[in-house]
């Protein structure tokens, strides 16, 4: 079954709370993209009782923020292989505490995940060139990358994040994506519930 995960790139805590309120009751799992290490969630994440949160850490030295986001209520933390200096200590720290994902830029070869396959829960393929921005155009070559990743590691849960919409989602699913991380297509739609239902109907 394909998992549809709304993605939020919050400007601040108020913005995060507002966007979460829009999908409250429509999705259980939500991804929060962290591009600014100055965002303050020390009092926890809003609506924590209604959501499971995965944190996509797109900041330098994300390993230094692990305690912060674990305490804030993260259930899964995703590291970008191109940014994280040393992944093994973070994986060890999170073992038994939170699920772990690795994100790959659209140009990073798929075999880069091999050293971590038995230690992680998902690989997230980035569908856009400029990381940390919503509304970016989808990079078409990512469909082939998902297919190669799925063929090489058929038991791996593959996520796609960035530029996902109703037009390219069927091709990503056919290529082997198990999870679609969707930002603009959901939050810029006139009816969020209908849009989420349309994505779920693609399964």
TrEMBL record:
SUPFAM superfamilies: Ribulose-phoshate binding barrel
InterPro entries linked to this entry: Aldolase_TIM, Ribul_P_3_epim-like, RibuloseP-bd_barrel
Keyword line: Isomerase, Metal-binding
GO MF term list: metal ion binding; racemase and epimerase activity, acting on carbohydrates and derivatives
Pfam family, one: Ribul_P_3_epim
Swiss-Prot/TrEMBL GO biological process terms: carbohydrate metabolic process
Matching PANTHER family: RIBULOSE-5-PHOSPHATE-3-EPIMERASE (PTHR11749)
Protein's name in the database: Ribulose-phosphate 3-epimerase
Organism: Candidatus Taylorbacteria bacterium RIFCSPLOWO2_12_FULL_44_15c
